Amino acid sequence: MANEWGPLWGLVGDWHGEGGLDTAFSHSRNQVLGTPYLEKVTMKPFGPVDNGSQHLYGLDYKTAMWRNDEENPFHTEVGYWLWDGATGEVLRGFVVPRGITVLAGGNAAADATTFSMAADLGGTNYTIGENQYLADKASSISYRVSITVNADDTWSYEETTMLKMAEFPEPFAHTDHNTLRRV
């Protein structure tokens, strides 16, 4: 049964990570800051979802991140991770309530413990959608994420979102990384 979810199977469950680091531009301080964060993620399996002859297996996921002792998270996401075993395509589709949607994708072996996904603004298959305000002030021009499922019941990610920001003449790399442990 696990092989139906391919490389996503190791991500099923509830996760907690305390060592996250968000490197981003702080508008309130007018500088780039590296901010530690706590993260909670839930990933629930489902499937198959049939598109004609295509059969996808997926994870329904939610994540939230908090700085220090904040009551409300500074970042949340909801979405799906999907696996197409026939083609080796792995997908992550998510919405961030700042007015951004991302469909990132890549290829991986069914037994991969490391895989990557990418999306580009205006991409043909893997793309980024954003509201008008963000398009004008902080446009996400690309998104890259690498996932590693570890043998010690943890998983890690490193992601980079390249932003075209009014504050910088060149694209700015907003990065996040964390290691999560199964709860």
Report on the structure:
By secondary structure, the chain is mainly beta. The chain has one domain: Calycin beta-barrel core domain (Lipocalin, Beta Barrel). Helices cover 3% and strands 66% of the residues. It is built from one helix and eleven strands; from the N terminus they run ββββββββαβββ. An eleven-stranded mixed beta barrel has the order 1-2-3-4-5-6-8-7-9-10-11. A hairpin with a 6-residue loop joins strand 10 and strand 11. The longest helix has 6 residues. The radius of gyration is 17 Å and the shape is globular. 23% of the residues are buried. The mean pLDDT is 96.
Topology summary:
Layout: E1 13-26, E2 31-51, E3 54-66, E4 75-84, E5 89-96, E6 100-107, E7 114-121, E8 127-130, H1 132-137, E9 138-149, E10 154-165, E11 172-182
Parallel strand pairs: 7-8
Antiparallel strand pairs: 1-2, 1-11, 2-3, 3-4, 4-5, 5-6, 6-8, 7-9, 9-10, 10-11
Query: What's the number of structural domains?
Result: 1
Largest sheet: 11 strands, mixed, barrel
The helix content is under 10%
Write down the secondary-structure element order: EEEEEEEEHEEE
The coarse silhouette is globular
CATH topology: Lipocalin
Indicate the low-confidence ranges by residue numbers.
none
